[in-house]
Structures are given as C-alpha cells and as structure tokens.
Records
---
Amino acid sequence: MDHKRLTLFAGHYGSGKTNIAVNYALHLAKEGKKVCIADLDIVNPYFRTADSARQLKDAGVELIAPQFANSNVDLPALPAEAYRLVEDRSSFGVMDIGGDDRGAYALGRYVPFIQKENNYRMVFVANCYRPLTQTPADALDVMREIEAACGLKFTDIVNNSHLGPLTDGSTVLESTGYAESLSTMTGLPVFMTTVRADLAPAVSKHIPNVFPLQLQEKYFDLPDQKL
C-alpha cells in the first residue's frame, strides 16, 4: 500500500471515517512508522478518536485530540498541536476531519501547510447505505460541499459501505458498483475497500485493496467511564 506523509479522512456524518482513521494509524505503526493522529472533528462528540487513546498509546501512536474531548462540553476546541502535525515532517500524520461541510471548515487553517508540502492523500469515505449518500450523485454533492468548505480537493475514495452489525460479505460486494461509479464520476481512484476484519479474507477473494477494520469502541460503551 502506497502511503503519503499525511492522510486525511473526511465524509458524511456516520460514514465511518473515525474508525478508519484509527485503524489506518495503527496499520502504519505496525509497519514500524512513527505515527501521529489528529482528531479535528469538533462537531460530533459521540464518535471520537480519543475513544481509542489507550490502544493508540500501546501501539506507539501519538494522539492529538480536541480539548475537552469525551467530556460534556458541547464544542471542544481545536488543539494547537495540530499545527505541529502539518509542519513537522518527521512522522506520518493521520487526520480525522469533521463530518460534511460544517466539520470540514476546521481543516481550512491547515490547508496552506498541507498544499506546500504536497505529500498528502485527501480521502472521501463513502457508504452507500447511509440515507444521504445512497447514490454516487448524492455522494458527489457531499464531496463538493466538503471541498468548498475546507479549500482542499479530494484525491481518493474509500468504500466503507456497511450496515453495522448486519453487514456480511454480500453487503460489501454489492457496493462495489456504487464505488466504481463514484470513481468514474470524479476521476478519483478507490484507494481501498474497508471491511470488518472477520469478513476481510472472503471479500478479498473478489475485490482488490481490501483493508480489514477492528471496530472502535465508543466512549459511552466503555466500562468504568464517568460522563
């Protein structure tokens, strides 16, 4: 798999970008790379990169998360340390961008640094089973809104089509036409197809670039946490 120095994951609310960002950071670390992941999502307080803080730390991945993440503060503040991620080129950086155009605004302040280095992958996470991105045309509308909000063009697509716990191999395989259509419409490659780890061996027999996912625990599901 070809890795860029910076990889940014963005998409519609609930597309699964946070879980993919965490898994991708862990994958880079497993390859022996120095990795830092930044959570720039100040919109959605329920699915946070910080939920995986312990797992990331154990893997040697540095985490930059908004102040007051996983607290009862409605709007966490963007971390100033995120500038270090785009300025310091000694490590691989993964960025989890907020959902839709509203969440993508936060990325805008880092775009000049990202463009100057020009060693990045801006990934649109697509799920054809989400209500507002069920067609390639709908997904394209979301893509354009995010690009306009942050000032950075997408370079790749990730097909993360799933139905939560109801997902099986056919769920993923039936979404490939959707991903291919979106790729044709945009001229962007499908970087990878993500699938729950236990389904990956079977799915990978039929489609290329399958990326297995370990599902991220959610803060409100974790034991011994005080809200």
---
Amino acid sequence: MQHQSIAEQIVQIVRLMFERHLTDIAGGNVSAREGEKIYITPRYAGSRQHWQLAPADILCAPIDGDALLQHPRCSREGRVHLAIYRSYPDVGAVIHAHPFHVLPFCVAGRPIEPVLEGTQKFGVTPVAPFAPAHSETLAQHVVEALRGREAIIRKQAAAVLLSKHGIVVAGVDLLAAVDALERIDWNAWCILGQNLLPVATLTYSTTPS
C-alpha cells in the first residue's frame, strides 16, 4: 500500500473490513491523517454504496476548522475523528466500525479483556459512557477514554467501545488500525465462544500405548 494515495488506501481497507464482517451496511467510517488534512469516507458509504467506494468518494478537509462538518456528505461520526486528531498528534488513522463479535460487548456495556496473546498489547478495551450518535458529547467521551493510552497508540493502536453502538480504533496508520480492529474482534469471539465449549471430562495420556 506504500505507493497508493491515502484515498486509495482507505477504499481498499473499507472493502476488506466489509468482506471480513468488521463492519456492516448500517455504517461506520474510516479516516486517515496526511499533514494537517483529514481524508474520510463519506456519509451513506455503507447503506447506499455497500462500501464499494472509489478514491473520488473520499472527502478531504483541514483538521483545524469545521469545513468537514459543513460538507453535505460528511460522515456522521466526523466529529469523533476530528476530535481524536486534534487531541492526539500521534494518531494517523481512525476506524469507527460495527464488528460482528464486538457488538455484543457494546450492548452489554462490557469491556473486552485481552485473552489472546496477540491482543495483550492493547490492554483492556474500555466502554465509553453512553452519548447519542453523532454528538459532540460522544466525541469528547471517546477522547477521554483514549487519555493515558498514548503509548499504546504509538506502538500500534488503542480502541474504545461505544455503548450500544460500535468501536473506535485510533492507530498510527491505517494498516495498524485495521489490524488492531480484527485482533480485537477475534478476541471478542474467543470470549463469547468459551461459553460454547463443553466441560472437559476426558483426560489424555502422553504415554504411548
């Protein structure tokens, strides 16, 4: 992806996310920072375009200022993305998604414990206090939930669950963010799947018969 434009990278990432059930038709949004500009997926990218975007669909606006929020196709969680970039200079990409295995934790208001070795570096993924979607309050809740986790962001990414909504991942770049997103989703599945495992009743001998 190193020879692709930011818009091309976003287009590739969102298609991959949709194919791998890391988000749904209902929505989500993906952005990346380049200098003092934000590149972000447009409104209705899921519901009307089913994440089959072209680079020309990706919006671009200054991070400083509200030009993005005034654009008619501004993604509904554009406020969250802007708030994160303004608060955390090490963040190079933000993913808001509705991953299949993560959503039960959002509904239950339950943090995701890192049970896989590959998710230990992210620590516990907390749940931000509830706030209505698209609101400035939600954006501030996400910013606060990331506070104190700057070292995790610099290493790869940090995530926050949105109560009854989805997840936000703030990463050093797009590849780091989507990698973290999938790891956390599979970690969530491992927690859920443990309840489906039968109680172990057999013992196995390591001595050859």
---
Amino acid sequence: MHQGKVALVTGSTSGIGLAIARTFAQNGANVVINGFGDKDAIEQERSGIEKDFGVKAIYSGADMSKGDQIAAMVADAGKALGSVDILVNNAGIQFVSPVEDFPVEKWDQIIAINLSAAFHASRAAVPGMKAKKWGRIINTASAHALVASPFKSAYVSAKHGVAGLTKTVALETAAHGITVNAICPGYVWTPLVEKQIPDTMAARNLTREQVIKDVLLAAQPTKEFVTVEEISGLALYLTSDLARSITGAILSIDGGWTAA
C-alpha cells in the first residue's frame, strides 16, 4: 500500500506511535521514529522494523518542545529517505493537578509537546506534500479533544487545540491532494496512561484499582481499554486512497465515551 512512501511518526518509541510506525512499515513505508527512552531499546525497535518488514527505518531524537529541532527532523528525513509523505503528530505528555496548583512549567511543556509540535511539524512537511500533490497528516488527539475531565487543564486545552489545528490545515490543503485528520482515542493502555495513575490516585485519594475502574474506564461504555492495534488500523485506513475524501475529520475511537 505504501511502498516508496516516507512516514514520520512522532512519539513513536513506544505505545500508540510505535504501533502506527510498525503498521506503516508492514505496508511498505520507510519510517522515521522519534521519542525519548533507553538508547539500546530504541535501537532495538528501529532495527527490528527494518528486519521485520524490509524497509528503511531511522531514528530522530528531536525534542518535540523545540520548534527548530522539529523542523530539522523533517528536513533530515527528506535528506535521508525523501520528503515526508505521511506525518503522524503523536507525541504527547500528561500531568494531573488541580488548576490552582498546576505548575506553570508543566502547562508550558504540555502545550508545546501536545499542540505546538503538531504545528511545527505540519508547517515543515506541507510544502513537500504540496509539491507531490499527495500527503497525509494524522494528529493523535484524544477524547479530551471533545470533552473535558477534571485536573487536566493543560492536556484538555492542548487536545482541543489539536482539533482546531486539524480542521484549519485540512481546509488549507484540501485542493492539494492532502488530507488532515485527527484520531481521538479513549483510554489506551500505554506508558502515558500508566504513568498518570499515581498522580490521579493522589489527586482523587483513590487506590490504583479504583483509578482504573472508576476514573479511566468509567466514561467508556465498553469498559475496555482501546488497543494500539485498533488505532494503527484506523491510521492505516486514513492514509489509504480509499480515505482520500476524509479530511478535517475528528474521529472518535473511544468505546462510546463521547457518544453520550
């Protein structure tokens, strides 16, 4: 499906991003993975993609809070593999706190990584897509792009912003063979979700089991976590030619969370 194409997936050394990168590679795309983590573990994932799928895979350690590093990552991908055909803005972090206690530096960091990074990467990638008259941009948003939850002021604000950015860039690029969409997962069992459990326990005075049952899955009628395979499958469809008329869409994959 994607033979000869180049896919850049931010925040892809684990979790949702890694699943998406591997799915694109399985379908023939050369990939750029990005994110923080153990150097040896990242190299294992990168080389594993090449070995498993017979494509080229490179790693960028660009800091998603730095616009200049993001632009350089897109440029470096072009030099190494060819201009970016598929961009998945997936990098994200979380912090849970009442607004009056929310650290200002955490607000700034979350807005930078969860929202501004998608702007910087899209800004850098769109010219190459326009030149080819083909491109796919997917922004990993969240159910929190559509609804709010307590103690997540920065994250909810950033994800609502991602929804607006998605619609705007979709309109700007619609006549150039480019689609721009947002995937809005409910709770997915990833390192990001697991790491926020202790903060939520403290903020709400709950046990770990209560956080999972009464907070994380309370809003999902299926009472099940969304899987990374389900999300990567949707991403693959959105990058296919069958989805060429889907642009500016904010697509929920949340076990019914936002249906109410």
---
Amino acid sequence: MAAVAISHRKDADGISSAALVRYMTGAKVFLTDYGDMVETLSAVGPASEYYISDLGSNQNTFQAFVEQLRRLSGYGKIHYIDHHPLSSSFASILRDAGVDVTHSVNECASVLVYEKYEQKLRDSPQMKIVACCGAITDYMDARPLAKKLIASFDRQFLMYEATVLSFAISIIGRSSADSNAKLIQLVEELAKGELPHEIDGASEYAQTHAERSAKLIQLARKNGKKMKNFAYFLTKESATGNVANFLIGAFDVPVAAAFREEELGYYEISLRSVDESKHDLGKIVGKIAVELDASGGGHQHASGARIKREQLNKFLDMLDGELSEPA
C-alpha cells in the first residue's frame, strides 16, 4: 500500500483533510473519532506513508496512540497534521518516535494540510475550496492562512459549499452500519475534484438537514435544560455541535452541551461557546475527561467528549463547576 490517510470523521475539517491527502497521494482512507482512533490505527497495515490529520489526543489516549505510531513507523513515514492543543512534551515524544509533526492551534487541520503541501495541491482550485470548507465549518475562517485562501473566491459561494458539505456529513452520520463507508465515498468524490454541491445526493442531504435543524431549534427551546453556567440537551441528532449552537440561542447562555447515545451505554457530547467566552472548552473538557478516565478535548470554543452513560450527571456538575471559575 503506497499511502494511508487517517482522519476525523465527524466534521468537514477532518473530511476535507482526508480529501486533500487522497487527491495528492491516492491514499486509502480510514475515518475515525477521538474515542476509537487507537482501535482504528491498530487495524491499519503496512504502507509507505501515513497521514494522520484532525485527530487530537489527551493524557488517557496518548500512550496507546504513540504505541500505534511506533508500530506503523516500522513500515513507513508518518505525517501528523493537527490543530488540537498539543503539549510540548507530547510533541517531543512524537518527534522522537520519528513522526513528522505539523501543528498549530491557529489554523484548522485542512488549511494546515493545504499549506504544507501547497506545491502538490495548488494546481486544483477545487482542493483550495475543500480547504476553505474545513476552515469555515470549524469557525476558523478569519485566521491568517484561511483568510488568504478564502479571499481567492466569492465568500457566499464558499459558504454554500461548506454548508452543503457539513450538512451532508451530519445526515450521513445518522445512518447506521454504512455511515463510515458513505463518508469515505464522500472523501473520494471530493478528491476527484467534485465540489460538495456536485456530489450525488449531497444537496438533498443538506436540504434534509436544514429541515431537521428548523425543527430542532424549537425542540431545543422546549426540552433543553439550563444549569448555572450552561444549557444542555439530549438529542438523537448526529450533529450534536449544531444542537449545542441552537441551545446557546434558545437559552441565551455562553456555553451549551448536546449529547447523544451513539453506542449503547456511552454518550457522545459536543460543547460550544460564544466568541466572547473566555473559558477554554478544550482544556476544561480535557481535564474532566482525565478525571473520569474518558476521552475528550478540543478547542477553546468547540470541544467534545465520550463518557459512560452513568457519568453524565457528574460530567455536567464538573462542567458547571469549571465554568464557575474565573477564566
């Protein structure tokens, strides 16, 4: 196998990152999430190069993550491109293991991939658009590199393409056994130069998601609950990040959390905050995840966690306590 791309399956930044790597290398694509990325890596076999993107780690998962990278480094070169918080000690361990580390919290993963391999990607305007979609949907479109890429196109056009891609990912994520296969197919279509609106079924997926979202706004207002410092809601929607954003508006709070039982006995949680919030959700959730022996982390205004169902009330209480502290 010549190359392998391993990327985040839950959002457009991860999907876009995988598509960029697929375009320039023809890589076989593996999609995963923070909670099962070690398991996914363990199933990856020999290749000459590995590209791992948009997948952060925390104290609970890092050791197993590095062990898998050391195993894979025996076959080929590993490129790790990410924008989640990464301590200097963790970065040093990765580099000592022979990993080519490209890391910055100042840009999204797909923009970092595009910048690193621009010479191989610049001949395709579609690939630049794909990188822009990652930045827009990750709310990092005002960052210097992303802003420069976005300035190459009409912004409204890019917003439309990013929305179609993001909404399509959300609807595909609701399907059961074949969701990963459909998402990989989405990556492959993007890598062929298809824009999101050109991919068969994507616009219909986006329309379905928009209709669901309109109903969710009312549902979040009706059934969501408010604690001292944030609002929360149990949903069956795969796009829990969108639901969290709806809660912010419905309850006029700076922080919101939406959770769903993706796997029996476990909750997947997405947290969002307004730009004005000084609290770093990534650090807060990472800290809580370590204490609960769970997985979790993210960025200042967007983070996620995977916890056992019986840990939910403790998670909510701990989150409320952390948000009560001065930022």
